[in-house]
Design goal:
about 220 residues, alpha/beta, Beta-carbonic Anhydrase, Chain A, 9 helices, 5 strands, binds zinc ion
């Protein structure tokens, strides 16, 4: 908490409804300056990557990977969850895999994630408690490891990492990924954690393009 209080706060007071529209004019100017065909080239999208990330305003997929419009298909929710009854996520995943034919799906979490912090507490937050319950399930699976970590920040950050890993596996278990692999489609899934304090992405080394890491019961054969 103390460390947080010492940090300078990002001033957003210049962001207004009108400033966003003015910013759009600037964006158009810069884009056309760099390439007069910038918008013509985006008539059809052809992104090779689907990003499943946290809704946190500090973790924008394009900026932190130095990519441009048209290069990453993005789905974001609180704490970058892959939940098997989430029609929004499943629809994005289905479109990305079966229509856009992306080659990579990346689940990206971030250290200090507010959703993970909230899930670790015993407080009530309202409707979102039902969403956070899925993170509590990740805690339950890894309780022995997590309970052994005395420092609260360290424990939170380890849960952030484990939450990414479990959601990569959740992704593999979806009917969409299972069918893609069963049909021989080239599709790799990955798990990353981003550090807001340094800007650095850490690969969780759980990348896979087949069923090898899954329990048998989840595999489509
Ligand atoms: Zn977050």
């Amino acid at each position: 908490m103390c460390a947080q209080e010492k940090n300078p706060v990002h001033d957003t007071s210049h962001i207004t409804y009108q400033s966003l529209l003015d910013g759009n004019e600037e964006f158009i100017k810069h884009a056309l300056n760099s390439d007069p065909d910038f918008f013509k080239k985006l008539a059809i999208q052809n992104p090779p990557v689907l990003w499943i990330g946290c809704a946190d305003s500090r973790v924008p997929a394009n900026q932190i990977t130095n990519t441009n419009p048209g290069e990453i298909f993005v789905h974001r929710n609180i704490a970058n969850m892959v939940i098997h009854t989430d029609m929004n996520m499943l629809s994005v995943l289905d479109y990305a895999v079966n229509v856009l034919r992306v080659e990579h799906v990346i689940v990206t979490g971030h250290y200090g994630c507010g959703g993970v912090v909230a899930a670790m507490s015993n407080k009530e937050f309202g409707l979102i408690d039902n969403w956070l319950r899925h993170i509590k399930d990740v805690y339950r699976i890894h309780a022995d490891e997590l309970d052994a970590i005395k420092d609260e920040n360290e424990r939170t950050n380890r849960l952030v990492e484990l939450n990414v890993v479990e959601n990569v596996y959740n992704l593999c278990k979806t009917s969409i990924v299972q069918n893609a692999w069963k049909n021989g489609q080239e599709l790799s899934v990955h798990g990353w954690v981003y550090s807001i304090s340094t800007g650095k992405i850490t690969d969780m080394n759980v990348s896979t393009s087949n069923n090898d890491k899954l329990d048998d019961v989840f595999k489509f054969k």
